[in-house]
């Protein structure tokens, strides 16, 4: 199957809502972007789980992840909704599982639950959480995913771990999807995180240039072999940046200095930044990393030149065509309460669905 695309929403972690002073207007911008993405054909929309903006201190609004997820579950109808990713340390995994079950019902079975070990130390300190060493946070994550799976599959969940204990926890309803809510485990760690994906995950998320992504997926495949897991049953996703212009130079010039400061040069050089032809070439190469295929049925091969600057995204091989429609609708609705969100860059994440099980109702 071809690549599918999702959109990171303008939630406030990146400098996307800058200049919108009224909090209600800022949140309605997030909602309208989500609805426009759904209308344009994006497969999924994503939120980050952060309390502080990436560039801090900052007076800009930043909306909490899970309350926003629940709201979007009711404000959209088709698109899948997920977190990239929930910080495990911020909430007990049994509570998280209960929250996710409710949101899956609210969304009629459209939730993808994304979780990671967490790692933005200033947030931990500011909000009063202990910032444990990475090894301990990963041990916590290992126990947490087992707790959540127990909450989603057992009548009375039970788990005895070093960090978490659950004794006869009830969770009804467990959600809509079968056999349970899809579990995405985010992170690049080759020894622990990708091993957890092979053992417990339905999806993963990695980052880096294509050579790095290919290596990460090769490591995941080896972990799957050891765990006797079908590698192709796992949804493999990665995020990147996207900025499209008539020329490569124009696309590059669209990046704000604040955005450039957040990402290393090697990340920008391998991202989807450039003319439509450059984007097409990079997507062709991306298909190799994701074990996809290139064929005449892939709409991105038909894109004509356009000048476009995207919002925070996760990426169908309809990407540039979808992006053009997305831009057009945003501009058309600019007078209907859509502030100038197009002036900021959107990170994209590309995911492949090849061989993965279908998500759906029980």
Question: What does this 3D model show about the protein?
Answer:
39% of the residues lie in helices and 16% in strands. It is α/β, with parallel strands linked by helices. It has a single domain (3-352), classed as TIM Barrel, CATH 3.20.20.30. Helix 6 packs across helix 7 (210-227). The relative contact order is 0.17. Mean pLDDT is 81; it is low at 292-318 and 337-359.
Shape: globular
Can you name the CATH architecture?
Answer: Alpha-Beta Barrel
Report Rg: 20 Å
Q: How many β-strand runs?
A: 12
Mean pLDDT: 81
Helix content: 25-40%
Major sheet summary line:
8 strands, mixed, barrel
Helix/strand structural class: alpha/beta
**Percentage of β-strand residues:** 15-25%
- Domain count, please report it: 1
Please identify the oligomeric state: single chain
Key features of this structure:
globular; TIM Barrel; single chain; 12 strands; alpha/beta; eight-stranded mixed beta barrel; two-stranded antiparallel ribbon; 362 residues
Topology, element by element:
Layout: E1 3-8, H1 23-40, E2 44-47, H2 65-75, E3 80-83, E4 86-87, H3 93-106, E5 111-116, H4 121-127, H5 134-153, E6 157-160, E7 165-169, E8 183-186, H6 193-200, E9 203-206, H7 210-227, E10 235-244, H8 248-253, H9 257-262, H10 265-269, E11 272-274, H11 276-289, H12 319-332, E12 346-352
Parallel strand pairs: 1-2, 2-3, 3-5, 4-5, 5-8, 8-9, 9-10, 10-11
Antiparallel strand pairs: 1-12, 6-7, 10-12
């Amino acid at each position: 199957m071809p690549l599918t695309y999702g959109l990171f929403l303008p939630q406030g972690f990146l400098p996307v809502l800058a200049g919108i002073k009224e909090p209600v207007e800022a949140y309605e911008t997030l909602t309208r972007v989500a609805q426009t993405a759904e209308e344009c054909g994006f497969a999924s929309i994503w939120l980050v789980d952060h309390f502080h903006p990436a560039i801090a201190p900052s007076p800009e609004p930043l909306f909490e992840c899970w309350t926003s997820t629940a709201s979007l579950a009711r404000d959209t109808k088709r698109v899948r909704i997920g977190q990239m990713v929930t910080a495990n340390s911020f909430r007990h995994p049994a509570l998280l599982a209960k929250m996710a079950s409710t949101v899956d019902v609210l969304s009629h079975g459209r939730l993808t639950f994304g979780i990671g070990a967490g790692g933005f130390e200033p947030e931990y300190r500011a909000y009063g959480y202990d910032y444990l060493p990475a090894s301990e946070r990963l041990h916590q994550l290992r126990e947490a995913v087992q707790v959540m799976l127990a909450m989603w599959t057992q009548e009375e969940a039970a788990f005895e771990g070093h960090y978490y204990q659950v004794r006869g926890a009830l969770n009804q309803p467990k959600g809509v999807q079968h056999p349970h809510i899809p579990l995405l485990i985010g992170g690049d760690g080759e020894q622990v995180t990708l091993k957890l994906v092979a053992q417990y995950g339905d999806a993963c998320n990695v980052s880096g240039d294509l050579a790095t992504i290919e290596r990460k997926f090769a490591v995941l495949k080896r972990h799957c072999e050891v765990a006797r897991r079908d590698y192709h049953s796992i949804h493999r996703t990665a995020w990147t940046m996207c900025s499209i212009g008539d020329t490569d130079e124009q696309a590059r010039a669209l990046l704000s200095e604040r955005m450039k400061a957040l990402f290393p040069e090697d990340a920008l050089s391998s991202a989807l930044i450039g003319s439509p032809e450059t984007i097409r070439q990079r997507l062709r190469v991306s298909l190799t990393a994701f074990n996809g295929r290139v064929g005449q049925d892939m709409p991105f091969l038909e894109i004509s030149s356009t000048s476009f600057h995207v919002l925070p995204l996760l990426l169908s091989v309809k990407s540039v065509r979808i992006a053009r429609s997305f831009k057009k609708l945003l501009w058309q609705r600019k007078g209907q309460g859509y502030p100038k969100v197009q002036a900021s860059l959107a990170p994209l994440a590309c995911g492949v669905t090849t061989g993965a099980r279908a998500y759906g109702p029980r």
